[in-house]
Structure formats: structure tokens, C-alpha cells
Predict the structure.
Amino acid sequence: MMLALVRPDSWNFPLFLHVLGAMVLVGSTGAVAVLALATRKRQAQGELLSRLAFRTLIFVVVPSWIVMRLGAQLIVDKEFSGKAPGWVGVGFVVSEPGLILLIALGVLAWVSARRGGVGRASVALAILTPVYLAALAVAWWAMSAKPGA
Amino acid sequence: MDTYDWLLFLHVTGAFLVLGGAVMAGIFNFAALQRERPSEIAVLFRLARVAVIAIGAGMGMTLVFGLWLVHTAGYGWGQTWIVLALVLWVLSNALGGIGGGREKRTRELAERLAAEGDAPSQELTARLRDPVWLALSWGSGIVIVAILALMIWKPGA
């Protein structure tokens, strides 16, 4: 509890980068999920919505993942130069395999946008994006509640 | 996990909903600015309502669990970062509330124009690019980021 009070000043900026990146990542992934689901429901605007989902992934989700991950590495190097505790491991488990899922989402969003929001790629995008969002929620639970700390 | 851990998790969840919702709203609003057809603008503003719900729920959670955390952790109520965060929370709500009202009227105009032939309209474009609305919406987002910075640096703690 008192760790927050005694955190050295030099940890603040990397932590800010990490948290801001994570929040933008969650918001932009949420936007992709909403767009992917709306693409299925509103076929008339499928082309616009699927194109916006792909652009959001490329121009917001991926950069925010990089900022989040960079901030995480900086703060882990400062705070845990030796062995990181289990709750930090949860973050790595979500972020690293999550990158593979993110790449898969990018490919699906690209195919969906090329096909005007129709086809199996758009269905898969509408299913997998909320799954990735749920994985991010597990990470923010571990990072904030710090189970086992 | 003790009470403090749960309160922190719920407070942070609220912050994720607020900032995540603001990012989502920003994406839909920015996309709407690039469009001319009223039906396309209307659908983007309708999707932005998901973000508005997330922001509303998150604002409530950050305040309730934030105040509870201050009490539980034993921070002083007069500490600079707590007072500033509360002032900025009110400011962000006020800016977002006024901006949200203008956004609702723009969505209603877009829906009406879409039903009346879906032709591009100068009035709709002017509303979308209204500098007051843009300043309110983006200003509210900047204030939220400032609150996040206060939570990290905790000046006066």
C-alpha cells in the first residue's frame, strides 16, 4: 500500500507511458470490437466500418501496444532488476502471446476491409477482438490488484 | 487480496473505462469528420454512444472508489494531487457534458438528413467542424490525461 508513496521519481514517467499506452490500447481495441460487431449488423455501412476497423488497428492499436510494452519493460528493469513477481508475469503472458493474436486480428481486419465487411474474416474479427479485450482486462486486474504481492 | 487491492482494482477499472471510452469516442468522432454522407456520420455517432456509456460508468467508479481509497490508504484530503484531481474530474465532466449535448444534436441532424435523401449538407459539415464542439470534446480528453498524470506523480503527497 505504501509503495505508491515511496516510489522513486525516476519510475514515474515509464509508469505513465505504460498505463497511458495500456488505456489507449484498451480503448482502441474496444473501438475495433464495436466496429467489427457493427459491420455484421449494418451491412449497408459494412465497407466504411470494416475499413475503419482496419485503420484503427494499424494506426492506434499497434502504436499503443508498442508504447505499453516499452513502458512495461522500462519500469520492470527499474523496479525488478532481478526476478519479477508473478503478477508481472501475468502481464507478459497477456502481452507476448497477445501480440500473435493482434497480428492475426490485423490480417483478419485487412481481409474483412478488402471484402467490404462480408465473409468469414469479418465474423472471426467480431469474435476474436472481444477475446483479446478480455485478455487485456485480465492483465489490468493483475497489474492493479497485484495478486500474491 | 485485501480491501485496498480490490478498491485499487475497481478504481483503475473505472479509469480504463473513462480513458478507453474517450479514445473510442475520439476514433468515431475523427472518422465522422472525414465523412460527408449523413447516413455514415449518423452511424458513427450512434456507435460513439457505447463510448459515452463507458465514460459515464468509469467516471462514477473513479470517483466512488477513489474517495474510498483516499480514506482507506490514509491520504490527506487536502493533498495537492487529490484536490487537483477532484477539480479536474468536475471540469472534465462539465466539458464532456456540454460537448455531448452538441454531439447529440449533430447526430439527430445527421439522422434526419439521412432519412431525407442522404445528400451532403453544409449545415452538418459546419456542425461537425464547429471549433467550440471540437475544443470541448478534445479538451475533456486532455483533462482526463492530466488526471492520470496526477495519479502517477502525486504532487504534494
User: Anything to note?
Assistant: Residues 81 and 152 of chain B are 10 Å apart (CA to CA).
